[in-house]
Amino acid sequence: MRVLVLNSGSSSQKSCVYEIGDALPENPPACVWEGKVEWVEGRVHYSIKNSRGDTVKDVAAVTSRGEAIRRLLDTLWGGKTKAISGPAAIEVVGHRVVHGGPRYFEPTMVTPEVKSEIEKVSAFAPLHNRAELEGMEIVAKVLGPVPQVAVFDTGFHHRMPLAAATYPGPYEWFEQGIRRYGFHGINHQYCAERAAQMLGKNLNSLRLITCHLGNGCSLAAIREGRSVDTTMGFTPLEGLMMGTRSGSVDPGVLTYLMRQRHFFDEKLDDVLNNKSGLLGISGISGDMREVLAATRNGDEPVKARAQLAFDMYVHRLRSGIGGMIAVLGGIDALVFTAGVGENSQEVRAAACENLGFAGVTLDRAKNAQSPMKGDTDISNADAAVRVLVIHAQEDWMIARACWSLLRKQSATA
Predict the structure, then answer these.
(1) Which of 241, 307, 357, 378 could form a disulfide with 247 if both were Cys (CB 3.0 to 4.6 A apart)?
(2) Residues designated as active site
(3) How far apart are CA 269 and CA 123, in angstroms?
(4) How many helices (H) and strands (E) are present in the chain, helices listed first?
(5) Which domain holds residue 209?
(6) Domain-located, residue 385
(7) Full-prediction pTM beyond 0.85?
(8) How far apart (Å, rounded) are the C-alpha atoms in residues 68 and 260?
(9) 155 vs 108: CA distance, rounded Å
C-alpha cells in the first residue's frame, strides 16, 4: 500500500510517502520520497529528497498554500526526485489533525461531516486545523477521489482521568466541551511504544514521561500505555514555555491586560502564541540553538536575557517533569523527543540535573553525542531510571494508522 502523509503546520508543510506491504514492519521504514515546505518572509523554501538520494532545494515566490503543495507534489511524480509513476499510484492520504474536539479521537475516514466537525473546533487551534482542512481540499483537487484519513493529535489523551482533564471552573464548561484535550499525542504514543521496545519490557508494565520539545513543547505521563496527564490543555498554548508560545500564565494577567491596556482577542492571541516564550524573553529568537549561542557569544545585556530565557525554560521543564513523576508515583523511563529534545544536549543535561532523587542520572559522554546515532539510552549504566532519546515518528504513525484502517475496512467489506 502506497501512503502519502501530509503534516500541515501554520508555517510549514511536511509530506512523505511510505510503501507498506502485507504486514506492518517492526520498525519505521524509510520514506520513498519526502518533502518540506517552509514559508519564510513571503517566500517558500522547498527541500525534497527520494530514496535514491536525489535532492532538490529551491526558493520560490508562491502566493497560496494550494500552489505550494501542488508544486511540492509535482516533484513526487516528476523531475529529479520522481518516486512514483503519477497521482493514481497513491492509494490513501493521511493527515495530521491537531484538534479533534470532543467527537473525534480515533483515525477516521475524511467525509464532509468530519471536515465540518474539524472546522467547528478550528477556533481551538486556528493556526493548524484550517491549514489541515486546506490540505484535504488540495488533495481532492490534485489526486481525485483517493481515500483520506484524519489522524488526531488529541486522540492519545482522550482517556485521561476526569481529574486531569477537567478545568476547575464551573462544571458547565466541561459540559460545553471546554476541557483539557492535550496535543502531540501521535508522537507521545509512538515514543511510549518505542521506549518499551528499547527496554525489552511490556508497555503495560511501565511508567513513562515523554518530553516532546520542539517549537511547541509538552509532557505526557503514561501508565500502562495510556496518557494519564499532559501539560497542554484546551489549546496547544497551555503548559511549558515554548519557542514563541508563553505556556501557562496567571489568567489574571490576561484580564488585567484586557482592562488596562485595551488588548483584544486578536492581539492577545498574537502575543501569547507568536511573541512570547524563548523569543519574548530573549528578544533574539524562538530557536533554542540561537538562544544558546547568545548565552555564549552575545554582549552582556544580550547574554543576560538569553540566559534568563534558557533558565526559565529549564525551570518550567523540571517542574513539569517533577509533577508528572508525582502523578505516576514514580518513573521507569524519561524520554526526550522532537527538535530540541533530540538535538540539545544542554537542555537534556539541565532538565535532568536535579532529578537524581528520582533515580535519573545521565552518562555525560552519551548525552554529548552529536548527532545522536539513532534512538539512544543516555542514562548511566547503573541508573534506576532509563533516559532515552527517541526520534519523532509522527509521519510513520499516521501512515500506519492509514494502513490499519484501510485493511480493516477491506476485511469487513
Answers:
(1) 241
(2) 153
(3) 11
(4) 15, 14
(5) 200-389
(6) yes
(7) yes
(8) 42
(9) 11
